[in-house]
Design brief:
By secondary structure, the chain is mostly helical. Helices cover about 70% and strands about 0% of the residues.
Length: about 120
């Protein structure tokens, strides 16, 4: 019988090995977080690195995204006398008219805040 690790999609042919030295105590923190998220320490580290990279890329592009979003936010605030009076329907309508890249960026930020 072949070893399952050898035939798995995450075999050494599809992944790269990289050794990292962690500051004292970080390994235990990662182990605790991985346990909370029901995944391996490796998966926890990869997930956090992917999220960090995505957020950094988003921050680099935020200047081009923030101007149109700020203009729409100001327009909504003036029209509705502040966000407290904006209905869910209006928020959904405003989100629906955003260009796809801006929509994706906004949703990425919103979902990263909740995770």
């Amino acid at each position: 019988m072949r070893n399952a690790a050898i035939s798995s999609p995450r075999s050494s042919e599809k992944t790269e090995k990289f050794v990292v030295r962690l500051p004292k105590g970080m390994r235990e923190n990662i182990a605790e977080l991985a346990n909370q998220h029901h995944r391996s320490m490796n998966s926890e580290i990869v997930s956090r690195l992917e999220r960090s990279i995505a957020l950094e890329r988003l921050a680099l592009h935020s200047e081009s995204l923030s101007q149109p979003l700020n203009a729409r936010e100001e327009k909504l605030a003036v029209e509705s006398n502040g966000w407290a009076n904006v209905s869910n329907d209006e928020i959904i309508r405003q989100l629906s008219i955003l260009p796809l890249k801006q929509k994706q960026a906004l949703l990425t930020v919103l979902f990263s805040i909740n995770s």
